[in-house]
Design a protein that fits this description.
The protein is about 75% helix and about 0% strand. It has about 475 residues and is an all-alpha fold. The strands form two sheets. A two-stranded antiparallel sheet has the order 1-2. A two-stranded antiparallel sheet has the order 3-4. Helix 2 packs antiparallel against helix 5, helix 7 runs antiparallel to helix 9 and helix 11 runs antiparallel to helix 15. The chain is globular and about 70 Å long. About 55% of the residues are buried. One of its GO terms (biological process) is ATP synthesis coupled electron transport. This is NADH-quinone oxidoreductase subunit N. It is a multi-pass membrane protein. Its EC number is 7.1.1.-.
Amino acid sequence: MPDLITALHLSAPEATLAVGGLVLLMVGAFAGEKSSRLVSTLAVGLLVAATAITVTGPLGQAFNGAYVADPLAVYAKAVIFLSSAVAIVLGDGWMTRTRIARFEFPILIVLASAGMGMMASSGDLISLYVGIELHSLALYVLAAFHRDDLKASEAGLKYFVLGALSSGLLLYGASLIYGFAGSMRFEDIAAYAATNPSTGLIFGLVFLICGLAFKISAAPFHMWTPDVYEGAPTPVVALFATAPKVAAMVLIARTLDGAFAGLHDQWAQVLILISLISFVVGAFGGLAQKDFQRLLAYSSIANIGYALLGIAAGTTLGVQAMLLFMTLYVIDQFGFFAILLSLSRNGRPIRKISDLAGLRKERPVTTLALTVLSLSVLGMPPLSGFWGKWAVFGAAADAGYWMVGAAGLVASVVAGFYYLRIIKLMWFDPAPEQAPTDKAPIEAKTIAWASAAFAFPLVIIGLTWLEPLAARAATGFGAG
């Protein structure tokens, strides 16, 4: 009984979200669609409460090592839960403006967050798979949430079918690993891999990496990303681009640097190859895009390649760099999608990049915010994106992968073209003759401006608290 109480105490964040999600489901079912705003507000409160429980809760292992609460999990869950709360705020405003008020939206995000929390705390292959499937099932529904939209339905179907393929790869890799190591626990697998680096175990590891690469939309497993980014509702894409990617990146770090630390030379080669392909696909694929959300899809592919360099380093510094990069990436992405949600004409969202021409005349503050975010993701010093890339490239060079880091720098230069094109359109191109933009919703403007403003104080105060937190998470995890 004491062990059960301890286990429940450690897993309180996920339990809170699961039970709270079911309660919200009952509220919505009895109150109907008119309860959408209430359910959204309660869901945000629930995620904030889960964050507080995570930060103040104890550390340790539960369920025979299947669940791990350590500094890495605490850091990741704080980012995941708060990101999910921001996505609910954006989604609530979007539903109000489009008159698609459905109480299921925030509930699905809450349940997905529970799965992402499990991913961040996975200590064996079973909890790894359960966490992935729990969050994926909710995301499949969210991708097709606007069911009257043909593109949204297509996006949901593509995501579901390709997600099933990735789940098959995960299960096949996990079965090979279990067959050779004789255990599901990461600690036992690490002990076996250190002394028996068999070919079968490495094959299982490669399949596992391929399945996980799908979840972060790393090339060449990115085929779902552009279509889902284009077809899914904008607040849903904002969620896809942030919290699930943080959860999956932390899961990859925990799996590789934890269970397979002894095989670093083998899996690092796979990650470096995936990173290089992601650089090329993300940088060059984005050059031909005309839809803003498809452009952000290719940008995310390239940026995931940068983050993987931190994990490929196989060191504590590498994990720290990955956490720092992903946190700053999440903030920038929310800024982009909040701006997209704030721009519309005649009640229709602005999605084409060409529609941004001359935006400075109508929305000077929004134009400035989008300029700052574009330069930040580009990696222009001294904005926040520069420090994220500085961290991952530095970790890669420190581990001896300076040539790969140089390739990443070249990809950044290529990708800079489409960010600079956006800036040119807004500031220098004449505005087309069309209806003026609609009044921007307050929640989207607030999040957009806050994300853009974060890039400036980061140089002075940001790194003084964010970098030590990432360092503590990486050191507590014990990579390298």
